[in-house]
């Protein structure tokens, strides 16, 4: 692996590393999903069935599971129960990070999509059907936001205590400050 450039710019190897999920990326995904669903529902609203208010509940269930898993992982990492002989194998922690990243994207897509639908429903407030579909859309938006937040929490919980943070990007793997 090559050392970072003296001016702090990333090396070619750094460009392909997996880093923490960025909120700005999730916002961009949500915006694209909102626009796409708004366009889809605008031209096809009459072809869709009524939106049940339970449509977004599965997002709440997955978010609750991820928060619970995050609490367990955080405790095991804090208690140093990670490793081949510990209660949390490093491969499982890596799988949880992958789950968290995928869930964060799913939450952003869901929140954005439901937002696009809600915007359409608010624009058509004179229709009784549109007013009846609003609670389902609001529940979906909140569920998507909760899932994205829970996924970011799980991803955060999977970090080792020695991982570099935005506050201290120079932390080495052994916890000591790295040489510049």
Automatic annotation (TrEMBL):
Low complexity bias (residue ranges): 168-180
Location of region: Disordered: 161-180
Membrane-spanning segments: 26-45, 51-73, 94-122, 134-154
Keywords tagged on the record: Membrane, Transmembrane, Transmembrane helix
Protein name in the entry: DUF3180 domain-containing protein
Species of origin: Gordonia hydrophobica
